[in-house]
Write a sequence for this structure.
């Protein structure tokens, strides 16, 4: 099945089973804005809990805050967002549609890579175990031709982006004969910059209002609170401040479901270090964050680092953790060495001294910062993408199952009476009353047991328990495992011990210690 078709099925599955809905769905939705349903919010909260505990619980020198969405407008002048938070946009005159020029070019680069991968996959299928992929890539004429085109385009694109050359970006689009997906024409306008911040007004009267912004990132809320946290917590370098919160960007080309949205959630940690040690800490946090991702068990081959060629104006090193989505490797987390830019800028614009007094050297200096920033929504999509599975069973029957990491699953245990009478529902509710204090349980009595199993498979419930007539006699139940569909008879008092360790966030945290 084509990866595009797989992605469409995942999007459909998210709506059908209460994970993600289009926002304002009864009014035909609002572009690039989504709501999380009853199962989606549980999965999302579990992802956030896994991140939060991995930061704050496992590190004695990392604490958390929750900064406001509205901030003093000078914050965004100091951070550079007012003047430089822009995307290069281009319009097609025939379709009247607007696109990001950089995305159009990146898609063209991806097309060359896709052609190469198709040639490799075709040869691998033809030659089987004797296939030497490295040699094939080095010698096959079609692969070499496409690789040369890809590398040349990538170099032109990097040069144009680093120079901020909008004319060069347009020329690349024309030279590559990139067409509008709607009109199919090359009738492009010039490329221009567009600021991504949402503006609003604060004040009780029309005459007394002032312009403020919805924050485009959560990091600045940490930076402006650096002194408050450092002093009240008596924090010593190195130390970190973590935060989970909403951010807002007026994305013109919002696409690929929840991968790029206008309202999204970030999990960010800013780690303050002594100048001169930042690159060492940068490498440490790269490995730490990759370990966090791989602990989910999705396979190391589905992750890679992408080191930035073009660095942001505040950074001296940057790398992305990319995950293999149905539409290719895409960024889910960024690790950046931000130097002392942010604290230095806020000191300049506020007139306040933002420094750290080092008792070991008896000197004051502005700390450097290592940032780890992960999109909750992108993380959610990566988890759903990897977990979605269609299986053909014995006898030709099929099932759709979400093989979610048990600790992230919205529901950990579904309890089902075999029939809706003779005291079986009461026994099932008794089990839930005991176990719901330890993990999320769900009662399900509608339809046949087989249909109920399939329904729980589709939402990723790792364990199901069936209460039958023998349960009333000997206090045992049938425990079913989602991934293997294995069933075994266990005593009711053993359920908590059998299930709790596997479904707790602690089970994940132990893998990254």
């Amino acid at each position: 099945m084509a990866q595009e078709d797989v992605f469409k099925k995942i999007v459909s599955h998210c709506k059908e089973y209460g994970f993600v809905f289009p926002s304002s769905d009864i009014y035909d939705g609002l572009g690039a804005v989504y709501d999380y349903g009853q199962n989606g919010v549980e999965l999302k909260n579990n992802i956030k809990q896994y991140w939060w505990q991995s930061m704050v619980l496992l590190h004695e020198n990392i604490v958390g805050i929750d900064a406001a969405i509205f901030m003093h407008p000078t914050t965004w002048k100091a951070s550079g967002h007012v003047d430089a938070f822009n995307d290069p946009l281009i319009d097609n005159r025939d379709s009247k549609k607007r696109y990001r020029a950089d995305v159009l070019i990146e898609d063209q680069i991806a097309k060359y890579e896709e052609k190469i991968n198709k040639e490799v996959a075709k040869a691998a299928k033809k030659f089987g175990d004797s296939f030497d992929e490295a040699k094939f890539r080095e010698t096959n004429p079609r692969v070499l031709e496409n690789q040369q085109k890809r590398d040349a385009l990538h170099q032109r694109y990097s040069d144009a982006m680093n120079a901020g050359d909008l004319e060069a970006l347009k020329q690349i689009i024309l030279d590559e004969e990139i067409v509008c997906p709607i009109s199919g024409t090359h009738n492009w306008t010039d490329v221009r910059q567009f600021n991504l911040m949402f503006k609003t007004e604060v004040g009780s009267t029309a005459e007394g209002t002032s312009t403020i912004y919805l924050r485009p990132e959560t990091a600045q809320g940490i930076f402006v609170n650096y002194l408050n946290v450092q002093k009240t917590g008596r924090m010593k370098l190195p130390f970190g401040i973590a935060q989970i919160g909403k951010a807002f960007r007026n994305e013109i080309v919002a696409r690929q479901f929840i991968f790029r949205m206008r309202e999204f959630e970030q999990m960010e940690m800013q780690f303050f270090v002594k100048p001169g040690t930042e690159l060492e800490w940068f490498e440490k946090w790269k490995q730490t964050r990759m370990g966090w991702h791989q602990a989910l068990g999705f396979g190391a081959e589905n992750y890679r680092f992408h080191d930035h060629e073009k660095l942001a104006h505040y950074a001296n090193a940057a790398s992305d953790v990319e995950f293999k989505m149905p539409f290719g490797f895409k960024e889910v987390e960024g690790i950046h060495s931000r130097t002392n830019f942010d604290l230095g800028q806020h000191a300049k614009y506020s007139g306040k001294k933002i420094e750290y007094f080092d008792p070991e050297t008896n000197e004051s200096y502005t700390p450097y910062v290592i940032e780890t920033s992960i999109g909750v929504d992108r993380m959610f999509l990566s988890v759903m993408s990897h977990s979605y599975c269609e299986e053909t069973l014995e006898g030709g029957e099929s099932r759709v199952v979400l093989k979610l990491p048990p600790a992230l699953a919205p529901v950990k245990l579904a309890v089902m009476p075999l029939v809706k009478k003779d005291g079986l529902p009461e026994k099932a509710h008794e089990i839930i009353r005991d176990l719901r204090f330890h993990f999320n349980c769900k009662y399900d009595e509608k339809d046949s047991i087989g249909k109920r199993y399939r329904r729980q498979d589709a939402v990723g419930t790792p364990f199901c328990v069936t209460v039958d007539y023998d349960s009333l006699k000997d206090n045992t139940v049938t425990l079913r495992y989602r991934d293997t569909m294995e069933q075994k008879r266990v005593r009711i008092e053993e359920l908590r011990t059998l299930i709790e360790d596997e479904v707790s966030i602690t089970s994940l945290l132990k893998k990254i210690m």
About this structure: The CA atoms of residues 292 and 512 lie 6 Å apart. The chain has three domains: 3-85+196-384, 90-194, 400-512. The domain at 3-85+196-384 is CATH 3.30.930.10 (BirA Bifunctional Protein; domain 2). The first strand starts at residue 20 and ends at 22.
